[in-house]
Structure to design on (417 residues):
């Protein structure tokens, strides 16, 4: 085994580890910063959101580079068992590229995109129920807080105006 | 409540994160992140833009129904009903921890406040003031100022809902003394919320909870409603660091 081959394997190993680190940071940093019951500083939040914005592209590039690095290492490693780790590493980077497209909050919370409504005289809710109410033009609408505190966001059109009810 | 039309686009929003327990929204069309409480875009292609506030109220259904008998109510989404809030959710929420605390004015983080902001002609915030909700409900009628703007906080006939108005009757110079009508006016049936809650000294008119005069010299005129946010103290104070608090002047 030549020194050149050894050096090449080391280079590909480092490249693969770098890809793994970059992808892991892209996925984990926003999750770490933007989580409930944690104080967010303005700068770290801004950085986390920038990472979130660019990570779909960054992690794809990282995954491609990881696959190439794994292939390069594979070709220079005669021992079969030693080939397993770069394959696993590249697979993990690919998985991270998919996870980079997932926003946990958007999975957990379900905004109402296509709301439906019932005339107030037909609604069976108790009069003591609290609502967020709005009137635009001739149309008046109420959004019960019991549901708004779950969905948090309702995309609606009222009186010809596109509005978002939030709670 | 905000408009969804910005920069020539109609945006569709999702809850996409949290910032010191106030949530972040992301729009599908541009991927921009927006702060829920302020309507400000804080990251993404539309950063720096602001959503336009839509005037809304937080009322009991009974109070709203008495005013809007032709109104419509958002339906429950059957798939998620099991996750909807129980009746005592606001009591339970008051025990939830917070990540910020501003122990000023002897207020606790989850004291419920009614917040009002005033802006200049350029849209810059000039003043902000918070009113302890329990105190307003107890007093029934609060006459105060936010900055130099005279305001009126009125508790509805259900003794729970609150609205804010500019304390100026159109056509009448200066602020006017308003008085809460105690007890139900005659002729109001049991179980029906009375429509009249105030009288004013300047014109001798009766006013309903929507801020409109229903009798007297000012009949047909309405006070200008002011946007008011019901929020926990820690959240209001975080976004209004120079806020004053009603009844807590130093």
């Amino acid at each position: 085994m030549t020194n050149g081959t050894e050096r090449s394997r080391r280079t590909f190993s480092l490249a693969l580890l770098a890809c793994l680190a970059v992808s892991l940071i892209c996925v984990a940093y926003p999750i770490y910063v933007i989580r409930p019951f944690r104080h967010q500083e303005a700068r770290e939040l801004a950085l986390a959101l920038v990472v979130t914005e660019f990570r779909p592209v960054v992690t794809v590039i990282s995954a491609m580079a990881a696959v190439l690095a794994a292939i390069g290492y594979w070709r220079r490693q005669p021992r079969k068992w030693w080939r397993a780790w770069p394959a696993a590493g590249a697979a993990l980077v690919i998985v991270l590229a998919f996870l980079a497209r997932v926003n946990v909050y958007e999975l957990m919370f379900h905004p109402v995109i296509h709301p439906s409504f019932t005339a107030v005289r037909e609604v069976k809710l108790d009069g003591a129920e609290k609502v967020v109410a709005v009137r635009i033009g001739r149309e008046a609408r109420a959004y019960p807080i019991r549901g708004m505190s779950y969905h948090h966001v309702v995309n609606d059109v009222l009186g010809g105006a596109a509005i978002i009810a939030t709670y | 409540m905000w408009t969804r039309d910005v920069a020539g686009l109609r945006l569709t929003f999702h809850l996409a994160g949290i910032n010191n327990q106030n949530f972040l929204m992301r729009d599908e069309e541009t991927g921009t992140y927006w702060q829920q409480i302020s309507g400000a875009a804080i990251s993404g292609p539309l950063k720096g833009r602001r959503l336009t506030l839509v005037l809304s109220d937080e009322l009991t259904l009974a109070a709203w129904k008495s005013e809007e008998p032709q109104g419509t109510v958002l339906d429950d989404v059957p798939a998620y009903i099991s996750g909807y809030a129980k009746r005592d959710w606001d009591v339970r929420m008051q025990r939830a921890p917070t990540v910020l605390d501003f122990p000023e004015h002897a207020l606790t983080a989850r004291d419920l406040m009614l917040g009002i902001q005033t802006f200049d002609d350029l849209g810059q915030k000039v003043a902000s003031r918070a009113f302890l909700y329990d105190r307003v409900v107890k007093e029934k009628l609060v006459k105060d100022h936010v900055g130099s703007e005279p305001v009126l906080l009125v508790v509805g006939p259900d003794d729970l809902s609150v609205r804010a108005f500019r304390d100026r009757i159109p056509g009448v110079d200066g602020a006017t003394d308003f008085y809460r009508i105690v007890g139900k006016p005659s002729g109001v049936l049991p179980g029906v919320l009375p429509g009249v809650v105030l009288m004013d000294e300047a014109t001798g008119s009766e006013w309903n909870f929507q801020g409109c005069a229903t009798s007297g010299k000012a009949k047909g005129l309405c006070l200008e409603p002011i946007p008011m946010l019901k929020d926990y103290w820690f959240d209001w104070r975080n976004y209004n660091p120079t806020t004053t608090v009603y009844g807590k002047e130093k």
Summary: Chain B touches chain A through 62 residues (CB under 8 Å). Residues 61-250 of chain B form one domain. The longest helix of chain B spans residues 61-67.
